[in-house]
Amino acid sequence: MQAVHGMTETSEAAYKDEKNRAFFDDWATKYDHFRISRWFQHTQRTSIEQFNIGPESKALDVGCGTGFSVLYMADALGIAKACGIDISPVMVEKAREKIPVQLAERIEFREASSDNIPYPDGFFDHVLCTNSFHHYPDPVAALTEMRRVLRPGGELVIFENAPDLSLYTWAWDRYLRLREKGHVRYYPSRELGDIIRRGGFEQPELRLLKNEFLKEGKLFASIQIWHARAPGPNGQTKDRSTNNQGLQAQ
Ligand SMILES: C[S@@+](CC[C@H](N)C(=O)[O-])C[C@H]1O[C@@H](n2cnc3c(N)ncnc32)[C@H](O)[C@@H]1O
Q1: What CA–CA distance (Å, rounded) separates 157 from 175?
Q2: Which of 12, 58, 67, 223 is the most exposed place for a label (fewest CB within 10 A)?
Q3: Contacts of 167 by beta carbon, 8 Å cutoff, 6+ apart
Q4: Is 84 touching ligand 1 by the criterion CB < 6 Å?
Q5: Res 233: pLDDT
Q6: Tens-digit pLDDT profile for residues 137-163
Q7: Which of 62, 197, 43 is closest to 133 using CA atoms?
Q8: Span 53-80, mean pLDDT?
Q9: pLDDT above 60: residue 243
């Protein structure tokens, strides 16, 4: 994290969280109506495709925004439990408003930060984080929490921008660091892989690293998608998914 002049690390993290809360509270009411939301939804579906999802799966989306992924996993993919946390109370409110009555038992949204996830150890089979990780003041603490709430062998998928792939994305990151007070940084793919390892995941796999042009309302984007599994009690990773083919969207 870039030092904010005169602040300790703790107050710097609290400052970033506060700025993110305010920024996304303000954005939340319009979030689903911007052209960019088409792109965000595409990135979320593409990320979810990386999971080995089964009907009994429990999934968590960290930094869930207005809840598109959570609703998609519960509705289109029919999974047993889909949860989302977000630091912005207005994002959480907007996400809750979208829960259809017939899915109310299987969907949950909570206001919470990535470094203090309000679920017990080993609760989830899948943890997703899309377009949000670059806001986290302590990325290793966030990953440690994501690993804690995953069962042994459970899957993590992270979708992020890739500043090592284009000068444009590198420059955009520099611009956001100055303009958006809650923006921490985009990570070059190799560095993000190292951070995922430092969060306690073994052998993270870079599933996608590419430039996209004119896709889903977005002119240009450099993107990376990471997949990793939580180690078992003795360090080994296990796959206990009930459906190795994954589920098809209906
Ligand atoms: C650009 S939105 C992405 C939302 C959604 N994941 C998507 O792909 O469209 C970033 C979200 O991350 C949330 N966020 C930022 N910092 C966070 C933190 N430390 N913990 C949890 N959520 C956070 C914001 O409130 C916002 O809703």
Answers
A1: 26
A2: 12
A3: none
A4: no
A5: 72
A6: 999 999 999 999 999 999 999 999 999
A7: 62
A8: 97
A9: no
Q: What angle do CA 174, 89, 80 make, to 5 degrees?
A: 100
Token pair recorded at residue 237: 């990773």
47 lines ligand 1 (CB under 6 A): no
In the block, residue with structure tokens 């005169």: 6
Q: Is the CB of 161 under 6 A from ligand 1?
A: no
Q: Which domains does the chain have, with CATH numbers?
A: 18-235 (3.40.50.150)
Q: Among 31, 34, 87, 116, which is best to mutate for testing ligand 1, by the most ligand atoms less than 8 A from CB?
A: 87
Q: List alpha helices for 29-160, DSSP H.
A: 36-48, 68-75, 89-97, 139-149
In terms of Cβ atoms closer than 10 Å to its own Cβ (0-12, 13-18, 19+), residue 124 is buried
